[in-house]
Amino acid sequence: MRDELYIDGEKVDMGESGVSLEYRSNILTDLSKIVSNFSYTIKLPKTKNNLRLIECAHIPSAVSSFPYLNHSGTLLRDGVQIVEGANVVLISVSDTIEIALSWGNIQGFEKIINGDKTLRDITELPLSGSWSYWRKLITPDLEHPVIDYGFNDSEEGVWYHPVIAVHELMEQIAKDNGTSFEYDRESVLFNIKIPLLTNNGSPEQSEECSITLTPVSISGIDKEILFEKKSVSNYFFSSYGVSSDSNSFTGGLINNFVNTKYTVSWDLTCTISGTIPEDLSLEMHIGDKELLSASPYSINGDKVSFSLDGTTEIVGQHGKIAGDIKFILNGLQTENVISEYSGDVTISPDSEVTAYEGDGYNNRYYHIANLPEIKQIDFLKAITSMLGLFAVPKSDGSGIRFVSFDTLIANESKAKNWTGKVVRAYYGDLPRKITYSLDGFAKNNWFRYKEDDTVKGNYDNKIVVESESLDDEREVITLPFAACDYSGNMVSIPLYSYNSEGQLEINDVEPRIIYSSGNDGTIASFKELEWGTLLGKYYSSYQDIVRNPKVITEYVRLSPVELNELDMTIPVYLGQYGSYFAIVKVKTKENNICEVELLKI
User: Half-sphere exposure (CA, 13 Å, Cβ side) for 228?
Assistant: First the structure.
C-alpha cells in the first residue's frame, strides 16, 4: 500500500508509515455536533523538500505564515485519489513534521454552527420581500393565514400576522453562509411556517432615514433652534425651511406617519448671556406637544450644556403644522442672548406597524426585523429534528444533504455487498464485537416544545428504547418554539388581549410554528406538528432501529477505489448475518484493511 500526499499541489516526502484515516457518519448525530472525516497524526520526515513546503516554520526566527493558514491536501493510495480538498493543519515539528487532515468539511456550515447569528441577521427574503402591507382584508391569504390571535373581528388596527415558510429561511441561511442545502421531504418545508409576532420597524430603514442637523441660530420669538439649511425628503419625514434676518435655515422636520417614534442623540453646549434661568430646558416638540425634555447638566459661567438623549413614544401626529418637529430652548428670558452653539443633533425614525388604513398610517410590516430571535443553528436543528433529517456532507464539500432514515432504508436496493470483504476473526463466523446500545440514548427519549404559560395542552412525546441498562430518560431536543393550542377549530396564539378598560394590548409570547392547511393554505394548523404526529410519521423506521439496536465491529478489506466512492447514505449487506447495515464509522489500517462500525437496520 503506497500513499502519496500533496499539499497545495506540491508532493510531500512520506515517511515509512502510511496514513490512517477515519470516515464518520453523521446519521445519528446532533446537527450542531456534526464532524468531518479526519486523519490521525501523519509524521513526515524532515527532508529539505518538506521543510521548504512548511516555509521553515521549525525555526523560531523564521517569518512563516504556514502554520496559521488553511492548506489544501490531496491523498492518493496506490495511485487512486481517495481524499481531495482536505484541510491540512501543521500540528508541531520535533524530530518529525506532524500534520493532520480533515475532509468532508461543509463549506460555510462551520460559520453557522460556531456563529451567533439569529434569524434577524438574514440578509434578504427574496420570495416574501423585505416588507408587506399589513391591513385588514376581506379574506385571509397564504401569507396571512387564519389564526386566533385574541383580537375581535371588529378591531381596526390589527390583522392576521404575516408568516414565512421555513424553506425560504433555510435557503437564505445557506446562501448567506456560502453553502447550499438539499433536502429529503422538501415539499413539507414549504408548508411549515413561522408567524411574525412582533411589530418592529426596520433598523436598516431607520438608519437610512436618520438625519444629523447642525444648530446655528435661534428664532427671536418662539426660541426655536434653527439649523444649517439641509433639504431632506425620505419615507418618514421631510425637512422644512425658515427665513430669519434674510438668511435661510432648516427649522425642523415634518413627520409623515402617526405611528412613528424618534430616537434623538444630542449633546448641545451653547453660550448664553445674562442670568441663566433655573427652569431652562431643551425640548423636542411635535406640533404643540412635548416629546422629550432635558435640563442643563452643566453650567460653567455662560457655557450651558444639555444632553437630550432618548426615544419618544408613538408621536400620534403627522403632516404640516400638527406634525412639525422642532427643538426649543424653553425658559429663555429677554436678557438671554445665545452666541455660540456646539454639538450636532442626530434624529432616527422608527415605527410600530399598524393595520389602520388611511392618510398618515405606516402599514409596512417588515419581515426580517420581526422574525424570532432564534440562533440560525438552533432553527436548523429544530426543523431537521421535527422531520427526522440528518446532515450528510455533499461529496464535493459544497454543502449539506438533509437525509431521512427512510432514505437509508430505501437505499437497500443500492447496498454494497461486503460479504466477501470481511476478514474473518479466528473465533469463527461471528462479529469481532457486538454491542447493544447507541451513545446518547436513554430508556425514554423526549422530544419537547418550549414551555410557555399561555399553552395549556401537552404536545411532547418520546421514543422508548427497550434496555434496562440505560438511564431512565433524557431530553433529545427542546424546540425554540412553543406549541399552539386550539380555540375551537382555529390555531390559537394569544398575542393580544383586552385590559380592564377594553383597550387592546399586545402580549409577549414565545415564538410559534404552524402548518399551512386547507385547499388554499390559508388556514393554520398544528396537528401535523405535534410531536406524537411527527414521531409517528417521520421516525417510524428510526424507532424500529434504535428500540433494539445492534452495533457490530468488523475488519473489512476496502480498496482505494471503494474508499473514494464511500457513501454513508447507502447501506452495506453482510451475507454472514443475512442483514443490511448502516455505516457508522470506517477507520483505515494497513494493507487496505479497515475497521468498520456498522448499525443493523
Answer: 9
